Structure formats: C-alpha cells, structure tokens
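Before relying on records like the one below, remember that each one covers exactly one chain. Contacts with other chains, cofactors or solvent are not represented anywhere in the record.
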Amino acid sequence: MKFVWQLLTVVAVSAAGGQGLAAAADNPYLQLTLGGATAVLAVFLYGWVVRRTEHRPAAEVSREGAASAFGRGLLIGAAMFTAVIVNLLTSGYYDVDGLGSPKGALGLFGFMAAAAVTEELLYRGVLFRWVEKLTGTYLALVLTGLLFGASHLLNPHASLLGAAAIAIEAGFMLTAAYVATRRLWVAIGIHFGWNFAASGVFSTEVSGNDTPQGLLDSATSGPRLLTGGDFGPEASVYSVLFGVLVTIAFMWLAHRRGYVVPPRRADRAAAAPTLVR
C-alpha cells in the first residue's frame, strides 16, 4: 500500500496540473504560475506521503542543497540539447529566422517545470525506487527506462524509434542521475533544462508535441535519423549518443560512491540518500 499511495498522489497532482495548464493554454502568464504551483505542490505532497507511509525523511527531495543540485542538472540538460542543436545547425538542418515569442517561452517555462517535477517523482521517485528494492539497480533502470520510453508512444507523431530514443537518452540517463546522487534534484534539473531548451529556447517539437513558439523563430529539416523528424530532435541520433555518454558517466559515479544495488542485495537498498558531492 505504501507504493500505491505514493503512486496515486503523484498521478493525481500531475493530472490536475495538466488539466489546469491545458485550460490556460492561451495565457502564458497563468501557465507560468500554474506550472510553478504544480511543481511545488507535487514535491510537497510526495515528501509528505513518503514520510507518512515509510516513516522516514523524504531525503530524495530534501531542501538542503536542492538549489545547487537542480542548477547543476539544469546546466547539464540545457548543454546537452544545445549540443544537439549545434550539430544540426552546422549540418544545415536547423535554421533561425529571428526572434520568436518571449511570452510563449514564459508559458513553456511553467509547463516544463511541472512536467519535469511530476515525471521525475513518478518514474524515479516512485517506480524506480520500489522496483530497485526487488530487482537491484540495473534491472530496475532498464525496466523503468523502457516504461518511460513506451509511455511516449501515446504522444502525437509517436514512433518506435522515438520511444526507443526516449528510453535510452532520458529513461536510462535520468535514472542514472538519481542513482549517482540518491536525490531527485539533479534529474529534475536535467529534465527541465533539456525540455525548456528544446521548446522555450530553440522552438523545436518535444516528444512529438507541437509546443508554442519559444524564444527563437526556427525550423528543422533534413534526414530523420539526424533531426528526429516530426517527433523532434529527441529522436535524433545525436540525442541518443549524448544520452548514452552521460548515462555512462553517472553510472560510473554511482559505482564509485557505492550506490549501485546488486540483485542479491536488492532488499537492502540504501535507505538514506546522500547529498550530491
């Protein structure tokens, strides 16, 4: 029942926040406010239900060091997507025609903040953490990463290629970020930095969704393998490559810190997350 209560709490906040953001689609200022409120409420309720059901501090979302950890993740996520765009730009597959919509970027800031927080709480905070206790780190990483990718098959312009790319570059990488830190803030920062750079800055599709225009008036065209086609650059081979490299780096760090749980010790998974070093 602990797992169920935590799952239902995050899903309920995500659903309510999503409906509110959809209703405010024409008001970027309201979207910014609602998105921020959804993110804060989700973290608060997740922490509360973890304390109530597991009788422990919710160290994975503790406020101590949260800002710096989130900031590091934000820089990593934004830098990764910028690297993808630079490769497309230099290849002639990404064009900028000028300034886009700063107002649109504001609304996307709130929308992506809510999405990053609720998805990380759900997939890493609840699903991965509980599956890891049963299977160990690596199998849990693969299973929940594949589930994360498969969930994107429900998106517009979805494809098996896009879902596989999401599973590898996001599902595996974001889980690895959690394993390496045993906190959610770096993963949330990466998730938000990547999504906001994609939509709010470079104005590309995000996981097949045609989001409002961001800061740049831009267009992407060229081979689907490189650009991701209608699904967006997240299905690009560049995104997958960078995601794999960052995943390897995080898992190396996790091993170095002794945070990887082997299958034979899955029932003794670390219960006291450590601050990001």
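Residues 120 and 156 are 21 Å apart (CA to CA).
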